[in-house]
Amino acid sequence: MNMRKGLAFTLSLAIAAGCMWVPSVLPADAASVKTIVLRVGDPVMQVDAVRTFIDATGAVPVIIQGRTMLPVRAIVEALGGTVSWDAGRRAVGVVLGAKTVELIIAKSMATVNGTSVAIDPANALVVPMIVKARTMLPVRFVAEQLGAAVDWAPATQVVTLDFGGTTILPPAAPVLTAPGDGSSSTDKTPSLGWNAVDGAATYRVVLHKGTDVVLDKPGLTALSLSVPAGLLTAGTYSWTVTATGPGGTSVPQAKPFVFTVKELILPPAAPVLTAPGDRSSSTDKTPSLGWNAVDGAATYRVVLRRGTDVILDKSGLTALSLTVPAGLLTAGTYGWTVTATGPGGTSPAQAKAFTFTVKDPVVQPLAQTVEMHVKYSGWDPATIHIKAGARVTWNIWGDEITSCTNRIIVPSLSISQALTAGKNVITFTAPSAAGTVPFSCWMGMVRGQFIVDP
Ligand SMILES: [Cu+2]
């Protein structure tokens, strides 16, 4: 049994017996340390070929939050580094060569060469802690930061820190590329992309929603990862990518990228038009245009056309009808559509516009009845007032008809009618313009006239 092994065995006995003082007999050339082997629960570690106590109190590696925790002073010093303790800030400082790592009790973020680094991106509960007055640090994080490749043998609960003599630095944190930081979209299967980094063999993407890990994908060799369908709902996500290579694992991005998934809100459907019925017609020049409400609509827009001319374009409507203002419509045919707008956008218009026809009201000509008697003296009365455009019923009483007045003519209205005793009725439409309309006996002698009043 060689000297060193004997000493180590004695020391472990001493510890078992409860004595606190332990000398360190590590190799002179700390920088050449290749491997450090620890075992959970075992106060003795192996530095290359040398077995030594982890610390003078017999502290042993323990597993907390699935991570191996232990005082790292002996390890760091075995590598030729230094460990400092700032009681005020409860901060442990580790310096090895150009590498400076600071961890603070109960904090999940450490600082590596001034950059803030998550100790365990997937578990914020992995933090430095004081156990039995010993400062316990996560050995994987510390060792990886110092350039070791860390191996964990679950069966034997042995942790091997391989420094390989040559310190291969862990790769740098990858530069994230897409989706852009702070971007938002309705895409629920975004492709997360990053740039390759030297010394990286694989990448690990960790996607969070708040503190919840939504996706944790290690061992990636591609430079992008499409988020599987069904994983994301509307909300804001943050993600980081670390790179792992022979030199260890990179720090994640100091500031995770963030993107927001918006719920895809579809535009509302085209409203169903209700009134006036399609292709209806009426004399109403202020019709009420009506339509049914549609889901997801906040406002509506009515567009009324005559041919291609836009007669009315009203948007921002919240009601389900619009009365066409007076004075806008004249007789003719109109086409109209209604679109709906909501958070999801604007609906299409109806595939086929509804049409309606406005007719000028058929103004029933004024019906007017006038009386005239045929006398020997002539027509009685010989001047009769009628309304322009009126539908005139001319009752001619043949009281005293002669061979002269047995026929009456109204040349301008092409009227020529025999008159007989009793009631004779002539109907005609008065000229639409004011003026006079002469009439006479068929010979043109016995005269009379209508005065057409406007
Ligand atoms: Cu006559």
Describe this structure in words.
With 454 residues, this protein is mostly beta strands. The chain has four domains: 9-162, Copper amine oxidase-like, N-terminal domain (Copper Amine Oxidase, Chain A, domain 1, 2-Layer Sandwich); 176-261, Immunoglobulin-like, CATH 2.60.40.10; 273-358, Immunoglobulins (Immunoglobulin-like), CATH 2.60.40.10; 367-453, Immunoglobulin-like. Helices cover 6% and strands 47% of the residues. The chain contains three helices and 41 strands. Strands 16, 18, 19, 21, 22 and 23 form a six-stranded mixed β-sheet that branches. Strands 25, 27, 28, 30, 31 and 32 form a six-stranded mixed β-sheet that branches. The chain has a five-stranded antiparallel β-sheet with strand order 3-2-1-14-13. Strand 11 and strand 12 form a beta hairpin. It is rod-shaped, with a radius of gyration of 51 Å. The protein starts with a helix and ends with a strand. The relative contact order is 0.07. Mean pLDDT is 87; it is low at 13-25. Copper (II) ion is lined by residues 404, 441, 443, 445-446.
Number of distinct helices: 3
**CATH evolutionary superfamily of the largest domain:** Copper amine oxidase-like, N-terminal domain
Report the major sheet.
Answer: 6 strands, mixed
Number of strands: 41
CATH architecture of the largest domain: 2-Layer Sandwich
Radius of gyration: 51 Å
Tally of structural domains = 4
Secondary structure: helix percent:
under 10%
What is the CATH topology assignment of the largest domain?
Copper Amine Oxidase, Chain A, domain 1
The chain-level mean pLDDT equals: 87
Low-confidence stretches: 13-25
Outline: rod-shaped
Supply the CATH class of the largest domain: Alpha Beta
